[in-house]
Amino acid sequence: MVKRLLCAVAAAMLTANFSALAQEPSRAAKDLDWTRQMIAQYHWVALVNVEMAPQQLTKFEYDYYPKDKNGPEVTRIKDADGTFARVAGKAWLRSDDWGATGQPVTDGKAGQLDTYAQITMVPLGKPAPHDPSQGAIVWKRISQGQSKDFTYFTFERTRERPLPGGVYPRFTFMKSSTDKDGQLFLSSFSGPLSVNNQPVPLAISYTYMVPVAGPK
């Protein structure tokens, strides 16, 4: 077995016309369901950029490792303050060895790290529309791009009657030549995050370490 690294590198993407490989927008919801299932099984990393306050960009790296024969389930976050880790069922530690050792953090820092973890999962949550006047959720194709190994599809999750000037979240999925529609990994997300009932910009890119059969 070898590791296949699945990642989105926007700068490496080339513009491409829609082709026979194009996935129908309606399959995007299934792609999200698929990603939700897969992230519980594999090691993955998210790079997060969020404007928690006006003109104040917060950046952090979220790293998840599932329980396996090599060790327990662990979450690691790197931010401007350092590196922190939490073994499942335990408290956050300032730690450089995935929570095996380290120093406990303050309650305030623990709360901040919990918030970061929640923000990372926002794109993967089930949508809960609050304005019935906009109608049902509709997926709209925005663009398609190509890198050496993957085709990237970007869809917007909008509404039947979107608000004029409204900003709706966009999801980019990656597809290799062997992937099936409806079973694509989420590659990146951009859209508004509600903070104190105000929308703030949120952008996340995801990378997955997925084991696949390799050459003998």
How would you describe this protein?
- Helix content is 12%, strand content 44%.
- It has one domain.
- A hairpin with an 8-residue loop joins strand 4 (56-65) and strand 5.
- Strands 1, 2, 3, 4, 5, 6, 7, 8, 9, 10, 11, 12 and 13 form a 13-stranded antiparallel beta sheet that branches.
- It is mostly beta strands and 216 residues long.
What is the straight-line distance between the termini? 9 Å
Main sheet makeup: 13 strands, antiparallel
Q: Quickly give the structural class.
A: mainly beta
Helical residue percent band = 10-25%
Low-confidence stretches: 1-21
Cα Rg = 18 Å
Mean pLDDT: 86
Net shape: globular
Strand content: 35-45%
**What's the total count of β strands?**
13
Number of distinct helices:
2
Name the helix and strand elements from N-terminus to C-terminus, one letter apiece: EEHEEEEEEHEEEEE
List the domain count as a whole number.
1
Give me the secondary-structure topology.
Elements: E1 2-7, E2 14-15, H1 28-39, E3 43-53, E4 56-65, E5 74-79, E6 82-87, E7 93-94, E8 103-104, H2 107-121, E9 137-146, E10 151-159, E11 170-175, E12 185-195, E13 198-212
Antiparallel strand pairs: 1-13, 2-9, 3-4, 3-13, 4-5, 5-6, 6-7, 7-8, 9-10, 10-11, 11-12, 12-13
Key features of this structure:
44% strand; 216 residues; mainly beta
Sum this structure up briefly.
This protein is mainly beta and 216 residues long. The chain contains 2 helices and 13 strands. Strand 12 (185-195) and strand 13 form a beta hairpin.
